Amino acid sequence: MNEIRFGSQICGELTSAASREWLVPDGLGGYAMGTVGGLRTRRYHGLLVVPGETPASRKVGLASLDPAVLLPSGARVRLGAHEWISGDVDPRGFELLERFDLTDGLPRWRWRIGDVVIERELAMLHGRSCVAVVHRLISGGPVELELAAAGTWRDAHGERRADGPPLRMDPVDGGAVIEGAYRLAGPGWTPQGHWWRGAYYREEAARGLHPEEDLWYAGQFRDTLRRPGDTVSVLAWAQDPAPAPPPATEVVAAARRRNREVVASAKPADDVEATLALAADAFIVRTNDAPVEVVAGYPWFGAWSRDTMISYEGLFLRTGRADLGRELLRSYAATLSEGMLANTADTGRVEYNTVDGTLWFLHAVSRHVTVTGDTDLGDELLPALQSVVDAHLAGTRYGIGVDLADGLLTAGAVGAALTWMDARVYGVPVTPRHGKPVEVNALWINGLAGVAELAELAGRDADGLHRLHDRATKAFRDRFPTPAGWLHDVVDAPAPAYPLGGAAFHDDDLLRPNQLLAWSLPNAPLEPDPVVLGRVGAGLLTPLGPRSLSADCPGFTGRHSGGPAERDSAYHQGTVWPWLIGPYADASRRAGLPVDDLFVGLEAHLTEYGLGSVSETADGLAPHTATGCPFQAWSVAELLRARR
């Protein structure tokens, strides 16, 4: 596995150190997360972020644990880092960092104060909301070490202020229980109990969100590091009825062993694939409601069916988790209603509001059976898959149904954004794509072929499915090519001057990446033409993957930045989406084009933003600064799948 390592030139320069983030998941949807320099730049950063009933309903507990070294001379050297609403950054412990590394997925910092070197390691206890922080004297000493515990207890999407009630602190042996929610334990505990006012989060300010909150200084731990090798450790865990966790050093050692086993079971071909295999592990979680679920992205997303199914092959089949994937597919099949897969929203509501999520589910089941030979699962789920086809033929929610005139799938309803390009601003879809979207119909044709194959494996009659497939394929080949050579993004779309359902329609020929699925899927309706694919690549390809709209098209927005409305307006109007490297690579392989060079920029990106992982999005214009979630499931999954 790649070891990610930075020296003082990165660690000691605030912009560089604060723009590189690490993540340690707990296997339940919670996490510890922060930056190389120790500066909390997001409201979501913390050492103990606890999952709720759903992965998205997280709460921030322990925010920081700030070390200070008391030298024999009497000097007190603070090693933490905070930014304040005044503009001050104080303390500036990152300036004393001589190294940061991410080894076996675990972060490790090393501060040098003259001849005294202090190291910190951090890990979570997998399957439990528990963080262990271990400090070790590497050289010098003896020295006293203080650890100031600052925290809160609030929704991860919000903030807490000092004008509200103080946090309740109940004393317990070796520490305190905060708000009855989480416990702190370590040596030499001295309670404090007052507010640190005006913590500032630069990333929230850049996203146009409220960037300020107050932190509760709960107290400090203190102990002596007498000789090299001595440790001072702190544990923090959600207050649950389970026994107290093991010692912190054991938690770190167990996490390191587990991460190595995760990588080994994936049988990686190289160090990059090993890094991606461990990155994939972060998104596969156990929740109260499901034995297995997929977190779409950290730090703010929960589970979304579309993201889960697009990620399925990379996360499960490429990492040796087919048995776990089998359970996930079965649990999702149970959510089908009127031929549509549930899309569990981050609000906790169950919604049926995608046209493509269900079709990606058909694809995931087909790939599972093809890759693993698990025909038993295919037989078990075949009635559910056939019900999807039947419901789409009959017509289902949001105007989703088969056009009997050509066998293609159409969809659209006022105010709805049903495809993966689902951004809305003030309730209005930015890219509504009503009509017959190109990737939806590629997925429909691919799905029909996949279900037909499963039916035949089960000894069932698949003639009707083949007729549907052949008819839709012929219509696709007739309707989607444009005079420019690439494919229409949507055909039979309501003309802009007419309301949905009006008499006038048009075909949208904007150059977007959705057409890649028409060439890349296993049962794609078209064979790629190298010349056409070259034109598509010329308009869309960047070092971090394809843009969502060519820079030559009207409406192109090259920067995915600003407040929520500005970012959502740009989300699918030129912003780069790394997950699309998978379809692009597949189409290129089928066209006989080389693909190895496609991954170079994304491989380098593993050390640039979310360390060891791949971001949700990036700017459409150079230098293609990463945006969105630093750790995104389908980005990791598709890079992992496409490289292999």
Automatic annotation (TrEMBL):
<dbReference type="Pfam" id="PF12439">
    <property type="entry name" value="GDE_N"/>
</dbReference>
<protein>
    <submittedName>
        <fullName>Amylo-alpha-1,6-glucosidase</fullName>
    </submittedName>
</protein>
<dbReference type="InterPro" id="IPR024742">
    <property type="entry name" value="Glycogen_debranch_N"/>
</dbReference>
<dbReference type="InterPro" id="IPR032790">
    <property type="entry name" value="GDE_C"/>
</dbReference>
<dbReference type="GO" id="GO:0004135">
    <property type="term" value="F:amylo-alpha-1,6-glucosidase activity"/>
</dbReference>
<dbReference type="GO" id="GO:0005980">
    <property type="term" value="P:glycogen catabolic process"/>
</dbReference>
<dbReference type="Pfam" id="PF06202">
    <property type="entry name" value="GDE_C"/>
</dbReference>
<dbReference type="InterPro" id="IPR010401">
    <property type="entry name" value="AGL/Gdb1"/>
</dbReference>
<dbReference type="InterPro" id="IPR012341">
    <property type="entry name" value="6hp_glycosidase-like_sf"/>
</dbReference>
<dbReference type="GO" id="GO:0004134">
    <property type="term" value="F:4-alpha-glucanotransferase activity"/>
</dbReference>
<dbReference type="InterPro" id="IPR008928">
    <property type="entry name" value="6-hairpin_glycosidase_sf"/>
</dbReference>
